[in-house]
Amino acid sequence: MSTVFLNGDYLPMEEARISPMDRGFLFGDGIYEVLPSYQGKMIGFDLHMTRMNNGMASIGIELGWDNARWRELCDTLINANGGGNLALYLQVSRGADTRRFHAYPENVTPTVFAFTFEIPAEPVADKSRVAYRVVTDRDLRWERCHIKSTALLGNVLHFQQGYQQGADETLLFNERDELTEASACNAYIVKNGVVITPPLDNHKLPGITRYILLDLLRKDGRIPVEERVVTKDEVYNADEVWVTSSSKEVVPVIAVDGKAIGNGEIGDVWLMAQQIYSAGKYDY
Ligand code: PDD
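A: This is the predicted complex of the input protein with N-(5'-phosphopyridoxyl)-D-alanine.
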């Protein structure tokens, strides 16, 4: 039985209750984070907190917690749930109103909910890693994908579209066939030894794994990095394709829409990049 945090209390998941009038439930009106921990050590804690605070500020939720308070909550949940390989899920919704009215209510207390879930052991930096096969779709989400909102129906529909075809992820492209991201990951190609990923804007989540990976690659210096528009043709003709997210780190993609990427095997640039990531990730 897992221990969760809800509005100041630590309690068994089965006992956690929120109001059906919570705006997180009614409107998806909330912000969330997912961050990985291995044997009690979190990766990118401050970066995740900054993104969550930016998200709350952008939708006018005032919680007023500092990072120390969040860190104590995370450490308590990690310990209560046995350490090991755990992702922390943190969510702040605007809170429960007395009526369903679109405008922000005044004087409601935000709902804070957090739990852990088990994730696979730390990804290995060798070619035994299980690679992804993905499909593509036109990105039909909203124009505020930089906000890590709990309103994820757009992402869910894209993920499900791939899942039903047996794919591990869905790569998303705008109306000009330019890559945005994947339904729950950021996306990259490798061409002639250069890692290329679309620049951040309101069509992509500013992924923490993306930030750490690009920072580590630039500091290491062996693999050049470019942030620029990536077209669908470039994806199909790439030497390698990767996706990243907090619980998966850097995932090699070996097929897109049933077409092999490169020689259809995990690439050497991925191997070096995941090694660099594995060696440096705890510095964040
Ligand atoms: N997903 N883009 C989208 C749309 C995402 O949902 C995520 C993360 C990412 C990668 O962000 P990060 O590197 O900070 O995890 C990019 C999380 C894990 C989720 O919703 O489960």
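Helices lie at 23-27, 45-58, 67-80, 153-163, 208-220, 232-236, 268-280. The first strand starts at residue 3 and ends at 6.
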